Every structure is written in C-alpha cells, then in structure tokens.
Amino acid sequence: MYHSLLQFISALESQGELVRIKEFVSPNLEITEVADRMVKNGGKALLFENNGTDFPLLINAFASDRRICKALGVNQLDDIESAIAKLMKEFLGPRKGLLEKLKVLPALKKVASWMPKSVKGRGQCQEIIMEKPDLTKLPILTCWPFDGGPFITLPGVHTRDPETGARNLGMYRMQVFKPDMTGMHWHLHKGSAKHYQHYKELGKRMPVSVTLGGDPVYTYAATAPLPEEVDEYLLAGFLRKKKVELVKCLTNDLEVPADVDFVIEGYVDPAEELILEGPFGDHTGFYSLADMFPRFHVTCITHRKNAVYPATIVGIPPQEDAWIGKATERIFLMPVKMTVAPEVTNMHMPAEGVFHNITMVSIRKEYPGQALKIMSSLWGAGQMMFNKILLVTGQEIDLTKYRNLARLISERVDPVNDIHFFRGPVDILDHSSNRYAYGSKIGIDATGPGPDKSLSDQTSKSPVVCVEKMRAGFPEIKDIRADLVADGISLVIIAVKKSKKQHIRLMAADLLLNKWLEQVKFILFVDEQTDLASLSQITWLAANNIDPMRDCFYQEDDHGNRIPALCIDGTRKTRELDDFQRDWPNVIAMDDRTISAIDAKWTHLGLGPLVPSPSLIYKSLVISNGAVSKAME
C-alpha cells in the first residue's frame, strides 16, 4: 500500500494527521518531551525537519485509532480479525470428500501470493551507501534523563537461525556506544536471542541487519507475537495482500525489504565480551536497569534518497505503543479463539497494563472450572506467558467499560474462592519479582454463577468503611479513597508512608480485625505519593509493583477463618522494609531543564496552545536522582 515512509507521511498529512515542525528541536530529550505532550493529549504525528541532522524524524505515527488503521490499511482493526477468521476457516473447516478438500487450494494459492520474494539487484534502500558507517549522522534519540545514552527505538532486527535458515524479524532497542557499535537488547525469550545462542554453540559470528522505515506494516510485523515458525514478512504480506520484496544486504547474506529507508548491516560475535547496556526509560513507565548484552558491530549503512528516520518513545502510558498493542489485541484474537481457547469471545489489554501486566478475556461459560482452564491455556500460549494479571468474565460484559467491569467483579467474585495464583515466567522488565524473569501470576474468575458456583453464597451485608477511625488510628495513612464503595465497587484504596517491616500486613490485620473495614472485597495499599484521584495512575503503579503470590494476602479472623477480603500491597519494595534484594527502578519523568526549554519553544512549534508537560504529574513519584529508586531521605 505504501511504497515508502514518505508516502505514508503524505497520506497522514493529506488527512490532517501530521504536523511538520521546522523549529530546531534536539534529539537529546527535547523531541521526547514534545512527543510525550502530544501523545498523552490526542496529538498528531510529528515530523521534526530540523533536528541537527540531514534526516527528518517521524514520531507518533501510530498514536491514534485512525493512524494505526491507516498504517495497516484498514478502516477498523476488527476488519483484520474478520479477514483472519475467514482465512482460518478455509483451512480448518471440516472436509468430507475430495471435492471439498480441493476447495482449500485457492486459499493455499492466496497464501503463496503473500510469501516474501527475493529480487535481484539493489533496492531503493541501497540508493546511497554511507562512505563510512556513522550512526551519529542519524537523529537517534536520547529519550529520558537517566537513559544510558541514545537509543534506536524502532529497529527491525533481522537474524537467521544458523541451522534451519529460519528468519526472525524482531524489535529490540539498540543503545549507541560508538559511531559503528550498539548494544543488542535481546530479551531472554525472544527469537533472535535463540539464534544468538545457536551461533554461540557453533562458535560462529552472527550476521545481523537492522532496517528503519519503509512501509509502516514492517514496523508492526516486527512487534507481532508470532509463532517462531511463521515469517513476519508473511504477516506483512497478508496485511498488504502482496508479497514483500527482499534484497540481499551488501556485507552479509541477510535479506531486507527493498523499500525501507535505512539498512544498518553488521554482526554480533558471541565470543566477544558483553557490554553494560542501559538504563532505559521503558514501556512499563519505569527505567529498565543496566545489564549485560551483546555488542552489534556496524559494517555498512545504506539509505534511500530522501530517507526519513522513524522513532518512538516509551514510558508512562499511554504512549504510541498502546495503539500498536491494540492492533495486536484485535489481530490475534481470532487465532487465540480458533487454536487455543475457542470459548473466548473477546480480549482486551488496557494501556495501564503495559501489554503484559493486565489481560481481560470474556468467555462462553459452559462447565465448572472453565475459567481455570482458560487461565492455564493462555498462560501457556506464546508471549501470553508474560501476563501477570488475568481476568476472566462472562461474554455479556464490555471489557472496555471499566467501571461496569469493576461492579461486576465486586458482585461476582468471592475473594477467597475465585482468586487463583500461579508461578511461571514473567517479562524480564518486570521489576517486582524476587527473581529475574520468574515470578507469579493472579487469575480472577469473574464468570459468575454457573454449575460450580452460586451468588447465594455471597454475603448481602453492606460494606462498612470507618475512614475517620482509620485515619486516627494510623497517622502513616496519608489518604484514603472509599467513594468507589458507594458506586457498587467493593474496593478501598489506602495511601501509606511505610516505615517498618511488614508494615502493610500489620496494618491490614488491624483494620480488618478492628472491623474498620467490613464486607469490602478488595483493599489496595499504595505509596503515599500516589494520586488517589487518578484510577489510571493507581492501576498502572499497582500492576507494575506487585508480585501476586508475595503481595496479595488474606487475614484470618479470631476463629482461624479467612476474612473474605483480598489485601494487595501495591507499594514500592525496598531492602530495608521488605527484604527485597533487587534494585527497584525509578519512575520515568523529564528533567526541569528540558521542560522549560520546550515551554519556551512551544509557540514556534505550530502545535497550538501550550500543552503542559505530563512529567509534572509524575515527578512526585520519582524517588532519588537516577534510574535506581534509592531509599527515601
């Protein structure tokens, strides 16, 4: 659909979805600050034409429902789900006779027409060969104040398995250390990391090629959670209904799309010493802390004429990746329904859950224990293994209507019997788990009455919340939000200044045993800096900060019975108070100097009335100076 990134930019501009910024804005923090203001306020895509390099920089290109649909070539994301459903039914439907089996041949021909195609000669991406590869000639962003340096944030990283030849296209941040060297932040569980291990076992140097730009469908395909055996360019071909044309790189044997804007060729040597990469202000809204990763050596940089450098930022949601996640949610719903859990009717991943923290699914409930079956199925399916909080409801609820959903949970969920805990892999960016990449998960069965449960078991007594007694009895309580109870939501949120070991558990015991909180099903404790007026902020922080099996607990009454209230410790954990032995990362916020600089430039940017910095809202959450959140002073 788009033969170049410039063509996509022209399409956005023609529909009033893009602003060209001619005023100088630095890639060092300033572009991030402008983009963050715009993405959190429904702003347009931004083309920074004056950034200190020869290449314009495009950002926020996907950050609206309309733009993500335009990037993928559909009117609405559900159109892709329908197309996938139709295709899968052609292949998976019952075939009784030979003639019916032959009916699948047109579908096979159709799929074959989407397979990537190798073409001879050079592509547009190789129109200009940089005389000496130099990454500093690109407007690579330093995104946040405590980042380890500038990072390439929208790379399409190409690798091949040394034995099978299977290609992987992934997206992994790349910190620039030298004009011809970056880090390669391969996550433990991802395809390219497996290729790297294979090269390491064989004692061979690993060719790697990185692309930037081109048809925006390539960027999406690099993020898609596909099975290992499925080529990402087949997905791109399906979305475009045409083959992706690939050309061979100049200094290695890998192939890349002919129409991308930049190609960065090179290699990773598995025998070489790893390099300390990071910190990086990540999509969780916290810094991911420095760790050891492979070095990527650049051997060649090529680009097309009039190349545009694409970039994104991540941080406290919502960011541009929220819309990419929404596309994934819709595109992969049908494969989940047809191959993993056919009773699933819908799925939703709220932006506050930063992809892996919160997933909500609705199902057709047909038998006892079905919600548990769904939890096990989904946690065992590809990248869903990273999910931390999984809510299963009946099919009648709209998963995007959060208050209605909260009321339904309050009505249906028995906190003692309908909450389930599991252990397993977690995302390597999960800072709350006691161990790297391994932690726990919580499943909530909100499917309602059925063969295995009855609402008659639930208490009908009204909740009691003694706010004044709680405040008087615990001066460390800085704020209480109890208004949700009156709205039919059985949740009380308490902001606390912790000062001793087991503080939250001791406080919860006193509150429940003194009966200052009765018939409230969920009690959430958060740090004193949390804005209790913002349910979005509370959700984002608590989902990041809990390891469910450690931080969700019950209190027993005087007779040894569990009180039907789930207590949740959503506070920051420390060595001193919680015996937490890993470094806890800081929340991401922009520095005052950059905020002031953009305030001063704003009238020259062509972006309308001044939009205040979102970081002003979050600065109170930043503990100490640096990427690591150190003990409060």
Brief rundown of the structure:
This protein is α+β, with helices and mostly antiparallel strands and 633 residues long. The protein contains 21 helices and 32 strands.
Structure, explained:
This protein is α+β, with helices and mostly antiparallel strands and 633 residues long. Among the domains are: 206 residues, Electron Transport, Fmn-binding Protein, Chain A (Pnp Oxidase, Chain A, Roll), CATH 2.30.110.10; 116 residues, UbiD C-terminal domain-like, CATH 3.40.1670; 115 residues, UbiD C-terminal domain-like (3-Layer(aba) Sandwich), CATH 3.40.1670. Helix content is 28%, strand content 21%. The protein is built from 21 helices and 32 strands. Strands 5, 6, 7, 8, 9, 10, 11, 14 and 19 form a nine-stranded antiparallel beta sheet that branches. Strands 21-22-23-25-24 form a five-stranded mixed beta sheet. A hairpin with a 2-residue loop joins strand 9 and strand 10. The longest helix is centred in the first third of the chain and has 15 residues. The radius of gyration is 26 Å and the shape is globular. The chain starts with a helix and ends in a 15-residue tail after the last helix. About 1% of the residues have low confidence.
Summed over residues and divided by their number, the pLDDT gives a mean of 93
Give the DSSP E fraction (strand runs of 2 or more residues): 15-25%
Shape: globular
Can you count the helices?
A: 21
Q: What is the top-level CATH class of the domain at 66-73 and 113-310?
A: Mainly Beta
Largest sheet: 9 strands, antiparallel
Architecture of the domain at 66-73 and 113-310, according to CATH? Roll
Spans with pLDDT under 50 lasting ≥5 residues? 454-459
CATH domain topology of the domain at 66-73 and 113-310: Pnp Oxidase, Chain A
Gyration radius over CA: 26 Å
Strand segment count: 32
Distance between the termini: 56 Å
CATH superfamily of the domain at 66-73 and 113-310: Electron Transport, Fmn-binding Protein, Chain A
What is the percent of helical residues?
25-40%
Alpha-beta content class: alpha+beta
